[in-house]
Design goal:
The structure holds 2 protein chains of 2 kinds.
Chain A lengths: L4 H19 L4 H21 L3 H25 L14 H19 L12 H7 L8 H9 L1 H18 L17 H24 L7 H17 L11 H23 L12 H25 L2 H4 L2
Helix pairs in contact in A: 1-2, 2-3, 3-9, 3-11, 6-7, 7-10, 7-11, 8-9, 9-11, 10-11
Chain B lengths: L1 H19 L5 H29 L3 E4 L10 E4 L1 H23 L8 H17 L3 H19 L7 H29 L4 H7 L4 H17 L9 H7 L2 H11 L1 H14 L2 H28 L3 H26 L3 H31 L10 H4 L1 H15 L5 H15 L4 H25 L14 H16 L4 H8 L5
Antiparallel strand pairs in B: 1-2
The chains are: A mainly alpha, B mainly alpha.
Chain lengths: ~300, ~475
Amino acid sequence: MTVELLPDLVLCVLLLVVAWSALFASTRRDAMALFVAFGMIVALVWARLGAPDLALAEAAIGAGLTGVLLLRAARKLPVSSARRFDYRRHLGALTFIVVAVSGFAVSIILPSPADITANNFDSPVAAAMPDSGVSHPVTAVLLNFRAWDTFLELLVLLFAITGLRQLFPIEKESLEPARTWQLLVSWTRTLVPLLLLVGAYLLWRGSSGPGGAFQAGALLAAGCVMLRITGMLPPLHWSLFAVRGSVCAGTLLFLCTAVLTHSLGAGWLDYPEAHAGTLILMIETLATLSIAIILTLLVAGERKDLCS
Amino acid sequence: MNDALLSLVTPLVAALIVLTGPAMTPRRASVVVLLGSALSFVAALLALQSVTTSGATQTLNLGGWEDGLAIRLRLSPLSALLLAFTALIHLLAGLYARFSRFTSGDDFWVLSAFLHTALAALWLSADLFNLYITLELIGLAAVAMVALSGPKAYQAAADYLLLSLAASMIYLLGVVFLYSEYHTLDVIQLGTVSADSARTRLALALITAGLMLKGALWPLHLWLPAAHAGAPAAVSALLSAVVVKGPLFILWLAWTEVAPADLAREVGPMVATAGMIALVAGGWAAMRSPYIKVLVAYSTVAQLGYALMALGLLMSWQIPQMHIALWLFVIAHGLAKASLFMAAGEMQGTLGTRRLTGLRGATQTVPIAMFAFAVAGGSLIGLPPSGGFLAKWVLLEPILSQPQNWPWAFGILLGTLVSAAYIFRVVVLAFDRATINPPDTRPYLMGHWLALLPALIVWGMALLGEQLIGLLAGGGV
């Protein structure tokens, strides 16, 4: 029994309560607001578990951008009447909950072969850290030891935006920005420069501490989305080379690095040790650009952005 | 390994050129992507040659880090064969999409090149988490391609997306359990350390459930008919021929390499039974379907039953011959199904109907497409000397040699009968020249001939039978 247990317990209870109320909120708008709150609490939980990278990503993407996405989607849905609670529709979810909870319980009860908290995860990473070119283990894993995974993750975003482009031909008229609310405009003017600064800092910070391309990209995207919905940023037309180029930039540089290290250097994605840090920073910078633009398009993209 | 990486990179480069290139009309995009597929095919053949002449599986630790830290890529005769197969299917579907009159949508090109990249990355990967990402990539590309059909396919695409995401999560949860037990994600390392424990069982159960949902293996196949039947013909061909085989590959890896042999022996009969039920239930649904493409889609569910059965028997008997049967089925089914979907697309476009009854007199009105349908169907039934026959023969041989295994042979026989029934149902209608359904437009023959091409290749597989069996005989990995 320690003093820290109290805030942890409060977080746990809060998480469950907010999750429950998000699921069973009476109106869609309440549910979405609670979902955003849920994302913030999850971010706090991650921070408390000692995973600041995840906390940042969750706060930026899980709570922020997903919230905007939900609100935008809700504008296109018909206003729903009061929801009827139909048990049959929730049978699948119920089964899933039972299976997941029992699986979790089983996995806790089962004797663990080795102490999970022991350092045997970190040891190979810790041993290889000096050769990785960066000093933050998470960045080293993401951009060096398992760079191939990160490359494929960038492709996931690229696939997603190409897929989203298929959904727009039917939309007859695009939604004009809602009547611009003066408060939103002035807040945007204040926040966007700050977001830009914090995003750039996170990107730079990624080599030595929590941060990196995904978090920085998400923050920049948040700024772009705000500019876009207040109408201060013109549509990002897909036909513009600059848009398509920045969407592909991260993938292209990553691919070039892989091919060049393979044909000239030691092997596929085997960075020369002296330049590993520089290469990682370059890849992260372009990846940030790609992530920011893709997330902006995914969240705020309309027909005139994506299909022109 | 160089050639395999080249085979992986060329479609991606093609896709990036199409995305960023100036003034990229669909026509130019098609040329770029087709060139990419052709190059990838050649590179895959070179990789196949190098891995068979050296006789050993090649592995590559990405980034040059040691085992356990790096992601490992592995080029085995099987993965080289699958690389070549994927490139070939993409080439055939691309050629069809380019020259057929029925368009597949402007973004078909970039999406199919993306799909090709993701599949190539999957065949080469030997890391459970990396495999998860490739699964996600394949799912996203496939969903986007279903949506190419326009608003009428959105419902099917959305269902496919949600189920595919749920399946990925279940798979990922299983991988997490394995990682918490063994502290490694590498398939080869896991194979040496895995033991029969409750947590391993839970992990493998979750992985199996996720993959069966992703791969539309019975009884988790219900999303497949709507998605595959709703997509444009060239896309359906890709989805049925290669996309559902990705999860099957990971399932095979999980049970033949990761799982301890005793556990696999225990679970094998259940998997094989699921396969047998899939054969009959899928075939029955195909037989009763009123729509052409839904029939073909249900036939995919049924045919995956053979593969599932081969996997189950491989697990319970641990004999390498089942490896051969499994992968011969995958390849023969892929080629035949590509042909069936293209032929079905051509026929329903030309005859102006989605209903089976619209095929009355098709032997007279669209003879070449109907011929392609019948020829490809022959391989599905397993008529000699097609690729389907080859696979079925390899599967039946060890079953028939032991009298106690005859119940399985009965299942295969029943499956064959049902598949013969649904193929002949179409063929009989097509020969009904008394009440012909006249075509809406004059048939545009190029598409019909291109639909016939994969069917001819699958019948030609018998000529390469000995080489294929020899290639897969090494146990596959």
